[in-house]
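Residues and backbone
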Amino acid sequence: MRYALSTAALAAVLLAGCNKSPEGGTPGTSSSFKIAGPTTSTTIKQDNAESVKLSLDRGKDFKQNVKLGVTSSSDKVKGELNKADFKPGDPADAVLKVSVAKDAPLGEHVLKVTGTPEGGTATSVDVKVKVEAP
């Protein structure tokens, strides 16, 4: 019984530490990809900006171009990618610059980063931003 509880606790910790999108491209095959983002909220004070690292995890047979885009739940918390087009063989990392307006509402906001391949299914990951007072 103790072993089963320990195994369940370990599985919960491992799953909670992962912030990857569902598979895009051709899910369930090596021709798929995921977008990985931070596992916790990024805290940013009003009227400031921070950079967040994202990565594109490609399956071994995934050879498509992928376009990344970002949308925000608030016009006061904006995201801008340093790179939006990923070709096969490109480095897998991107930087999302998150800018918070000086009058942005305090609390948690969500930026959705979506990866759209040339063919197959698009996927997205949520990047959480906690806005604090200066």
Summary: The CA atoms of residues 19 and 39 lie 5 Å apart.
